[in-house]
Write a structure and sequence with these properties.
- The complex is a heterodimer of chains A (271) and B (285).
- Chain A has 271 residues and is α/β, with parallel strands linked by helices.
- In chain A, 35% of the residues lie in helices and 23% in strands.
- The radius of gyration of chain A is 19 Å and the shape is globular.
- Chain B has two domains: 2-66; 71-280, MetI-like (MetI-like fold), CATH 1.10.3720.
- Classes of the chains: A alpha/beta (271), B mainly alpha (285).
Chain lengths: 271, 285
């Protein structure tokens, strides 16, 4: 399974080819990523899991075009990424809302910077926010919102320019457990219904298994792809993340990925 | 105040819904009001006590009235200066130079801080010089500025230079403290450097700018008065030097009182600006 692209992809939406990344600091030279090969099909939901420091978030910044790889290439629909593109949306760990802007103004930041039509963008922003139950907070400032509401605003901001690919960098990790379950359920629904291609970085195996079509496990530094798991449930329709958590397959995948991550030896190493 | 507000808030909310507040809550509110009044009363008592002491001590021969003057004489000097119109001239000269000073150091400091943020290597090169220039007693430059720039411009230059280095360093620190993810977010949408400055750096450092302004008002006044000592033909600094040379303590004291009023006024103006921003930006200042 290791390293081989999933079967059945003719022309991947996102193709990562032999990507490596080196950091140089005055103290040392650090290989952060090595030989990463990954194909993601259009509409696929892929979760990247791995021990902390394995470079999974770094890989996401490469896909976003924020950082250039030292080796290899990343392409979207056959076109190499050299700079950030509005076709790729990025969600940060923190909601990164601008405290001085209202909710609506925050959602519109992308439209302003991309010079999209203002009126149309505003209509879409209002639609999105109302869809996420934030109609009363359009003109509120971020500090008046709860963590879950703030992350919904961040989602609306990310989806506003209609990106094809969404890169999510542990977007739920700053939330409390209940909000996290509820919001991941809600977001998975939104993203699936819009047919987005999603790459989710998480340290939470449960989140990965319940949300994704495929879970990619990365090894410790230098980050490599260690194994991949296609998540299939027996039910006819794709279960929502919350439903998935109650299914027997969930526990099987959870245990397999847990074993693969080799957390035990890590905790022992820490002790 | 802040802690009182935050404690009061959850209690106050249900009270607005129920028409009659409970007796305990009324007592609590009355207590808050009493505390506020007490603080005001003490503030007033201190200034009144000071004025009385200043009036009585020379009268009773505890200090030499030639050296200290009296509040009553300061008042009559003030009235005299208002009558002959010179108070306005001198006050305006000083106020104008001060405004030039803090506006100038703010603008120049902002430009420098933005350049440093945009070109970190420039900052790395200039860092030791900035630190030394900031620490240098700028008052030592007064004679040089006078020779180079003449009487008027040397005062403006002095007013600007006292504040410009600390302004630059404070604003640069503010820019550096901006969440790097906010910068990344703008880059993700293809934002330019100008976008970053307009949409993130400037609005994101408003609180820092306010505190810089507060520091600058005091510094600019120092620069102006010292500049006026050297070269001016008008202004409150000139009045002080002139008064001391002819040994007219009334004049010196009056000028100092007016300076105190100016600095209080400027400070109040900045606080008004701050509270206006606080209201419009919802507590993010």
């Amino acid at each position: 399974m290791t390293g081989s692209p999933s079967a059945g992809i003719v022309r991947p939406e996102l193709a990562v080819r032999n990507v490596g990344l080196k950091y140089m600091t005055p103290e040392r030279e650090l290989v952060a990523l090595s030989d990463i090969n990954l194909d993601v099909a259009a509409g696929e939901f892929v979760a990247l899991v791995g021990p902390s420091g394995c470079g999974k978030s770094t890989l996401l910044t490469l896909m976003a075009g924020l950082v250039a790889p030292s080796k290899g290439k990343i392409a979207i629909r056959g076109t190499d990424i050299t700079a950030p593109s509005h076709r790729v949306g990025f969600m940060f760990q923190k909601d990164t809302l601008f405290e001085w802007r209202t909710v609506l103004q925050n959602v519109l930041i992308g439209a302003e910077l991309l010079h999209l039509d203002r009126a149309a963008a505003q209509r879409r922003a209002e639609e999105l926010l109302i869809g996420y139950g934030l109609e009363e907070f359009l003109h509120s400032l971020p500090h008046q919102l709860s963590g879950g509401m703030r992350q919904r605003v961040a989602l609306a901001r990310t989806l506003l320019p209609k990106p094809d690919i969404l890169l999510l960098d542990e977007p739920f990790s700053a939330l409390d457990y209940q909000t996290r379950l509820a919001l991941s359920d809600e977001m998975a629904g939104i993203l699936r219904s819009e047919g987005k291609t999603v790459i989710l970085v998480t340290h939470d195996i449960g989140e990965a298994v319940s949300m994704a079509d495929r879970v990619v496990v990365m090894s410790r530094r230098p980050g490599r792809i260690k194994s991949q798991f296609n998540i299939r449930f027996a039910s006819a329709a794709r279960p929502t993340p919350l439903q998935a958590r109650a299914l027997p397959e969930f526990n099987d995948y959870f245990r397999k990925i847990w074993d693969d991550l080799d957390m035990q030896s890590q905790t022992q190493a820490l002790q | 105040m802040t802690t009182q507000d935050s404690i009061a808030a959850p209690v106050a909310a249900p009270a607005t819904e129920t028409p009659a507040a409970s007796p305990e809550y009324q007592r609590y509110l009355a207590g808050l009001k009493r505390e506020r009044l007490l603080v005001r009363a003490w503030q007033l008592a201190i200034i009144i006590g000071f004025l009385i002491l200043w009036q009585i001590a020379p009268n009773q021969g505890f200090v030499n009235p030639m050296l200290t003057s009296y509040p009553s004489q300061v008042l009559s000097t003030l009235i005299e200066l208002v009558k002959n119109g010179s108070l306005f001239v001198h006050t305006w000269a000083t106020l104008f130079s001060t405004i030039i000073g803090f506006a100038g150091s703010m603008i120049i400091g902002l430009i420098l801080a933005l350049s440093f943020w945009s070109f970190p290597n420039v900052y790395r090169v200039l860092d030791p010089y900035m630190v030394v220039l900031n620490a240098l007693p700028k008052i030592a430059l007064v004679p040089i500025f006078y020779i180079w720039l003449g009487d008027k411009s040397s005062i403006y230059a002095m007013a600007i230079i006292v504040g410009v280095f600390i302004t630059t360093l404070m604003l640069y620190t503010g820019f550096r403290a901006i969440d790097p993810d906010k910068v990344r977010l703008v880059r993700l949408y293809g934002g330019t450097r100008a976008d970053l400055i307009r949409k993130v750096l400037l609005p994101g450092t408003v609180p820092m700018m306010i505190s810089t302004l507060k520091v600058n008002v005091g510094l600019s006044l120092v620069g102006v008065v010292v500049g006026e000592f050297q070269s001016a033909k008008s202004g409150l600094g000139y009045l002080i030097i002139f008064g001391s040379q002819v040994f007219q303590m009334n004049l010196v004291m009056t000028a100092i009182v007016v300076l105190a009023i100016i600095s209080a006024g400027l400070f109040a103006a900045i606080q008004l600006l701050e509270s206006w921003l606080y209201r419009t930006r919802g507590g993010n200042v």
